[in-house]
């Protein structure tokens, strides 16, 4: 039997806010495709996402807005068309700068699972 494309119907879930201080729209995250997931993230102007690590590699592709990416001692501006390769286990956070939302795709290899997320802020002692 020849190979053929197959439809992966939309989940029907809309964008949702996260404790990480951003809004997520999962575009692809399925049990039958364990090697990859894809989401769209939106960070409101002036907001910095939670400092965290993931147990998977993540690649951001900026669609619109401007941001400041931070992690592992590095900080650099990002804008439309930029991609950021974040190794598994690397600390990361991003701030939306300017007047517009920062919107980017999050490609995870292998797929993102909530149990692979670790907040680095929750572990920090409060003054």
Automatic annotation (TrEMBL):
CDD domains: cupin_MJ1618 (cd02214). This is Cupin domain. It comes from the Bacteria. Residues 41-107 form the Cupin type-2 domain. Pfam families: Cupin_2. SUPFAM superfamilies: RmlC-like cupins.
């Amino acid at each position: 039997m020849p190979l053929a494309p197959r439809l992966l119907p939309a989940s029907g879930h809309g964008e949702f806010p996260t404790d990480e201080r951003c809004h997520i729209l999962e575009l692809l995250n399925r049990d039958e495709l364990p090697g990859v997931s894809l989401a769209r993230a939106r960070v409101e102007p002036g907001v910095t996402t939670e400092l965290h690590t993931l147990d998977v590699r993540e690649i951001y592709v900026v669609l619109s807005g401007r941001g400041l990416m931070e992690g592992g001692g590095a900080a650099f501006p990002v804008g439309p068309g930029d991609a950021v390769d974040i190794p598994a286990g690397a600390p990361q956070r991003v701030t939306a700068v300017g007047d517009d939302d920062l919107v980017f795709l999050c490609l995870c290899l292998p797929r993102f699972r909530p149990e692979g997320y670790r907040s680095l802020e929750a572990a920090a002692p409060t003054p």
